[in-house]
Amino acid sequence: MILVSSCLLGNPARFDGQSRPCSLLTKYRNSGHFLSVCPECAGRLPIPRPPAEIQHGTGKSVWQKRCTVQDRNGLDVTAEFCQGARICALLAQKHKITAVIFKERSPSCGVHAVYDGTFSKVTLPGQGVTAAYLQQLGYKLYSEEDLTEELLQQLLADDTEK
Ligand code: SF4
Predict the structure, then answer these.
(1) The ligand 1 atom nearest the CA atom of 7
(2) How far is the centre of ligand 1, averaged over its atoms, from the C-alpha of 93 (Å)?
(3) What is the C-alpha to C-alpha distance for residues 100 and 127, in angstroms, rounded to an integer?
(4) What is the pTM of this model?
(5) Does the N-terminal peptide bond of residue 48 adopt cis geometry, omega within 30 degrees of 0?
(6) What is the pLDDT of residues 16-45, one digit of tens each?
């Protein structure tokens, strides 16, 4: 199975109750290869919810306890983000995940970049809280912005062989 951010498959899991469907992924959503997850929902955050950002750091620095995740109202939601990541890791292990395709720039799912904590659309290089956790466990991560038809076909073929 391939672990995929729920919002990329068209599910309204985002903080604002919206989705961010990725046409390549939705094209193959009935292939039987995708396991849809939303780490923030897994961490029991509601839909809708205030937007949250890692405060001046990345997912890796959250796990190193060098920074927190706070929502726009200043509420510390670090525990919920970390719990969501642990649940995603358990699912990944249980379902023998062969790859992860996550939403870029999300504080949970970002693969190459995350917002910087100022809620002003400025990004930092690095990963979200769940993405960092899964990478440290050895999973291969891609964002929807990495995807091409060829790459997705390869990931689907690799998953079929396992
Ligand atoms: Fe999408 Fe990940 Fe945000 Fe959930 S936490 S809405 S899956 S980007």
Answers:
(1) 1
(2) 19
(3) 13
(4) 0.98
(5) yes
(6) 999 999 999 999 999 999 999 999 999 999
